[in-house]
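Note to self: keep these together.
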Amino acid sequence: MRRRREVLVGFLLILPALLVLAVLYIYPLFLSMYMSFTVSNRFSLANYGKVFDIYWRDVVYSVMISLITTFATLVLSVLISGYLRFKNWRFLDLMYKLPLFIPFLIVGHAMRVFLAPHGTLNNLLTRILRIEELPGLSRSWIGLVWAFVWIMTPYATLIVLGAFKSLDSAYIEAAQNLGANKVKIVLDVLLPMCRPSIMVAFILTFVRTISSLTIPIMVGPASPNMITVSMMFRVNYFNDWGTANALGVVSYLIVMVFAIYYLKFMAAERGGIKA
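Structure:
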């Protein structure tokens, strides 16, 4: 009897959170999936046919941009975290957090100006290199990755640096006693022992990148587009919610692949299911 009462109290405590999750996430998710398989109130795969006929390049482009951004972000975050693990440089500690407080819309506009053909970056490079003119990086995939990496690095660094700092210093001191330098300690001690946190940073960066809308609109090229931009155009210009939802379901599936890998990885780390 007491056990049942404890279970009931526990369920009532988490009920508000479950209701919010059901209303704001699960219901829209299933509604989106239903609409993606519906044309004129009948079951159809026509929306997915449009996705793979018209938007397959956008799907591949979105995955590639997200992967490049994620790997570049992780490399930068490991470099910053590795440095700050051994050196208390307050300027770097402050500067890498700066993008955390800037909205995506402002970042998109700032990067479009900074990377424009006659923007701040090109004006600086042409004077240093004494070159008359350089092509702008805005409206290109390089500029898009640049903007993404700039905004995503602080989030990943907070996770990686937190993991590096929480690791027992005895491991680092033991490696130093054996003659390992700081680079070797980062590569052979910190990275292997902080793999779960790095995996979290990988998943969060990938999901935030592939689901971003503002920055691809303001900095990315006209074609191909990120999936989110294609969804927006499909709704705004064609009022085609079916194809837009099919694109959304495709993005769910892409993210789900990484989520399943992450869950298997964490289970293996804890001695459960082997990945």
